[in-house]
Amino acid sequence: MQHVWRRTTPLTRTVAAVVVVALVGAGVWWFGIRDASAASAAPVTRTVAASLTTMQKSVSGSGTLAPSVQQDVSFEVSGTVTGVPVAVGQSVTVGQTLATVDTLQLNADLLQAKSTLASAQAKLDDASGTAQIAAAQAQVDVAQSGVDTAQAAMDGATLTAPVAGLLTAVDLEVGDAVGSSSAPTGSGGETTAQFTIVGTDAWQVDVTVSDADIALIEVGDQAEVTLDGATEPVFGTISEIGLLSTSDTGVAAYPVTVAVTGDQEGLHDGVAAEVELVYERRTDVLTVPSLAVTTATDGTTTVTQVDAAGATVDVPVTTGETSGNVTEITEGLAEGDEVVLATFTPGSGGTGRQGTTQDGGGTFPEGGPPEGFDPTQMQGGQTNG
């Protein structure tokens, strides 16, 4: 048999020795130092106190902020405009003059109506028979109605603001002829208002609520309105609930109007809003974080507390409703009682295990490498499995 010999240089022997030492060192770390470190690491317990809070139930909706007062105003009499003492962008008060028309014809009509009434009254005074008196009285009534109409027209020659607010439209100039036959019309043929007044001190949001939720709310319920771009809500109340569905999707939905009752500063027409319609609110409710509550398969509910000796003890509790990330406690705890929220056990590689039922991080489970692990099988610094 022919033997083949390979020459071993000092460098080759040195490299082999380094590899052996490295593999032995890895095994010592996994089976010795790491296990000792993990065994000596004590879990860190985090506790929180049971506290009183406010729990509420609500229905969500979205809408657009709009002024509660937006009124169109126009002349109801015929005539030629003689004055328009206001302009777009001006604030007006209730009763302030917006425009006037000439009163020559209106005054003539009023005088004629009064003359007719006087004549009818004279006939009534001269009537003697029952039939004559009845007929004369009817003529007086008709004449009186004519006077009332003429007087109203005379009063209407001065158009005044029925509400206070900001003038957003003024579609009238001196010399314009006004009246039912000469009212300005829009591009679609509809009659346009001569003045539009928008209130700036009262706001509302119109939302739609589904058929399933509409029975939960009622007029007077509180609402929280969060405007687009705002971090804090403004508050309001439900002022109106529509009786007829306005949905055209086949699913019934009803209009709900929310009147803003909170701070009115900085509100603007047309801003999108998210609305919470609160139909139930309870204050001073004892709660703990829901993560602190454990429910067993038999329905028993417990929280974990730490006793005077530092040991954890499971305490039975009775829970109520859950809202967000907190759970109501109706029996078993008092305000200020500390409960365990989570535990954190340091693991390998700076990772760990949070909670009592969550798997930890690290290259291997905290019990160490799997049974039968051979560090000599490590390739490229990684493990198989």
Word description of this protein:
With 385 residues, this protein is of the alpha+beta class. The chain folds into five domains: 10-41 and 352-377, no CATH class; 45-52 and 285-345, conserved putative lor/sdh protein from methanococcus maripaludis s2 fold (Beta Barrel), CATH 2.40.420.20; 59-68 and 199-283, Beta Barrel (Elongation Factor Tu (Ef-tu), domain 3); 70-99 and 164-198, no CATH class; 103-156. Helices cover 22% and strands 36% of the residues. It is built from four helices and 22 strands. The protein has helices spanning 10-40, 104-126, 130-155, 211-214; strands at residues 44-49, 51-67, 70-73, 79-83, 91-92, 97-101, 158-160, 165-170, 177-178, 195-198, 203-210, 222-227, 234-241, 253-260, 272-289, 293-295, 301-306, 312-316, 318-323, 326-331, 338-346, 352-354. The protein has a six-stranded antiparallel beta barrel with strand order 2-11-14-13-12-15. It has a four-stranded antiparallel β-sheet with strand order 3-10-8-5, with no helix packed on it. A hairpin with a 6-residue loop joins β12 and β13. α2 runs antiparallel to α3 (130-155). It starts with 9 loop residues before the first helix and ends in a 31-residue tail after the last strand. The chain crosses the membrane at residues 12-32. Residues 344-385 are annotated as: Disordered. It comes from Cellulomonas humilata. Residues 347-365 have a biased composition (Gly residues).
